[in-house]
Amino acid sequence: xxxxxxxxxxxxxxxxxxxxxxxxxxxxxxxxxxxxxxxxxxxxxxxxxxxxxxxxxxxxxxxxxxxxxxxxxxxxxxxxxxxxxxxxxxxxxxxxxxxxxxxxxxxxxxxxxxxxxxxxxxxxxxxxxxxxxxxxxxxxxxxxxxxxxxxxxxxxxxxxxxxxxxxxxxxxxxxxxxxxxxxxxxxxxxxxxxxxxxxxxxxxxxxxxxxxxxxxxxxxxxxxxxxx
Length: 228
Known about the structure:
Layout: H1 8-21, E1 30-31, H2 33-40, H3 44-56, E2 60-63, E3 67-70, H4 75-95, H5 102-116, H6 125-139, H7 144-154, H8 156-161, H9 168-188, H10 191-212
Antiparallel strand pairs: 1-3, 2-3
Helix pairs in contact: 1-3, 2-3, 4-6, 4-7, 4-10, 5-6, 5-9, 6-7, 9-10
């Protein structure tokens, strides 16, 4: 069995990321390097390096005269993140000609089972399972640059899709159903059908975000139709 060793920076990255995922650090909250360094019993160097990586992942941002804060994207930025993610996933499906490897489907089914067991008390896991599931569609291509580009947005999905969710229980419960539709489409081997189901999945998320933020259809400064 392989044994993997992580650097101090990697440990700090994961610790801060977990705080954001579990909303111990909330959207818009200022992050103080010294406080984190004291909490993790380390110098400010590893914390500073970790924050740079988390900025790259889209979880935090630096603002002049303010400093480092947890990212809190607006609807326009949320739409952009989802648009790019779905474009990469559709590209992956078309690259494979709709022929989804059995191993990929099996891995997606394993994530489905974890989603099925979700409840409101473990709501933070929704983000991780969603990324794990969609990542399988891109990993199957074995195109390392495509997967790297997709991965750069994977954690941005955490602060984008769920920060303003009002009914966490409902979202947790429906994860299995909405993602099972994608697995069922993958079994057809029809690239067009798979792309359609994946696009509709993202479009429903955009629609939910608009509704929960009180944005009306005629107030949206961009077209939603080209996702479908």
